[in-house]
Amino acid sequence: MPQLLYLETVGCQMNVLDSEMVVASLRRHGYELVEDPSAADTILFNTCSVRQHAEEKVYSALGKLRRLKQKHPEKIIGVLGCMAQKDQQLIFERAPYVDLIVGPGQLSQTADLIERVRQGDGRQAALSLGRRDGSTESIRRSHETFDPLRDPEMRPTPFQAYLRIQIGCDKFCTYCVVPMTRGPEQGRPPEEILAEARLLADQGCKEITLLGQTVNSYRYRDGERTTTLADLLYKIHDIDGLMRLKFVTNYPKDMSRELLQAVRDLPKCSTYLHVPLQSGSNQVLQRMKRGYTVEDYREMMQRIRDWLPGAAVSSDFIVGFSGETDEDFEGTVQMVRECRFKNSFIFKYSVRSGTKAAERLPDDVPEEVKRRRNHQLLALQDAISEEDNQRMLGQTVEVLVEGPSKAAEKSGADGPILQLTGRTMCDRIVVFDGSLRLVGELLPVRVADCTAHTLIGQVVTGHAGPELHALDVLASSPVRV
Ligand code: 5AD
Ligand code: SF4
Fold first, then answer.
1. Does the CA dihedral 186-190-192-195 come out positive or negative?
2. CB 86 within 8 A of CB 354
3. Which residue from 153, 331, 358, 404 puts its CA 20 to 30 A from 352's CA?
């Protein structure tokens, strides 16, 4: 009898990838995935600590399992990922029926730890060393990855995959818990990354997104030779079968000319760049210890516009960080206006224990003000996104078809034609009607309508077939978006 496994993932792309690895490993141990936690023998949460809200969701989901565990003590409940590393024993205190906690650097041990619980060895915890709990080398070693275990069935789509090129982060922005939960920045060896990219292409993968907390800071030193992200892009680009290459998340200071040139030279490389600015005020950036000024970011934007005139740039912002005044926030508003991001992810500042900001900077912007600034910035960004999408009307874009749209899934539509969703080279979401057979194809779609977040179109029939286009608009067109 197979063991039945339920796994819920919260958080970023790193977590989605980690969950793929955990499932691949557990499948090898005879586990089968189920969608209903109450039907599972083992219930796991892969968690996120970046904001309080993400943690509360998990504690509330755990709370709902209390009764189930009372009735079925043989069921195993585990907390994986960043919350395990950050909260450690606190998880056992808040939810005493949790059987195992596993940090992001220890996930390869998950199958063994579950087995130990099953055999009656009691609660299990596997965590990496804290950033002050050992020598640099021992801390590094305690954060392992086990990336080559790829499982196409666990990916959102089998023809799109994440590929980790870097773990951890050394930037220590004062608000951020990631350097503590994911440990020191370490680049994976280029040969490993290339072998994995080839494996993914052999599995039918058409689009690879390279992942790192500061992906463009990637460096791997081997004797005299240093490999950068640009070097990796040139190498991965040669792999047959791959059609699109993306990378996230970028750190503004490391957006080098060399990297922008690689993106310009390589047609499979997406001209979509996610480069979080976080704030448009130098005072706030300084308190965040982001390591750049608004002027530096502006210069970087100019560099992107010079090298990649049609690129789509997106950003993250934190509103209501310690000491943020109306004037500071106005600086952020100005930067959103000026930079015309494709989209922005906007968050209210959330104090994270263990960070410099939690220790030294008061959380002094009232919740109401954070909320108001959040809404205001979001409304501005949405207006810009919609205006930019309007400029796409009548244009033909190339879409990698991902599957039924959210609306089609919600309505349970299962006729021969349903609403499908996909993305353009520059990461714009497109919905259009078509048959499920189109999933995984690269198709030309003419844009007929739009909202701030979505282009709505029709498939153009009689097209010569997929070609490579680094920008979104297929036909030569005066409009570059
Ligand atoms: N509070 C709010 N947002 C945060 N982020 C990171 N830490 C915090 C925090 N403590 C945001 C940043 C980052 C994104 C992934 O999450 O904008 O870029
Ligand atoms: Fe966190 Fe800053 Fe590292 Fe990004 S660069 S993961 S915000 S510490």
1. positive
2. yes
3. 331
315 C-alpha to ligand 1 centroid (Å): 11
Which CATH code is given to the segment(s) 155-270? 3.30.750.210
Please, which residues have CB within 8 angstroms of residue 430's CB and are 6 or more apart in sequence? 397, 399, 421, 422, 423, 424, 445, 447, 454, 455, 456, 457
Ligand with smallest separation from the Cα of 173: 2
β-strands 219-222, 225-228 pairing: antiparallel
Render pLDDT for 54-73 as a digit per residue (tens, 0 to 9). Answer: 999 999 999 999 999 999 99
For residue 127 and ligand 2, the question of a CB distance below 6 A is answered with: no
User: Rounded to two decimals, what is the model's pTM?
Assistant: 0.93
CB 425 within 8 A of CB 399: no
CB-facing half-sphere around the CA of 287: CA atoms within 13 A: 21
Inform me whether the pLDDT recorded for 130 exceeds 70: yes
Fold of 396-468: OB fold (Dihydrolipoamide Acetyltransferase, E2P) (2.40.50)
pLDDT digits (tens, 9 = 90+) for 384-409: 999 999 999 999 999 999 999 988 88
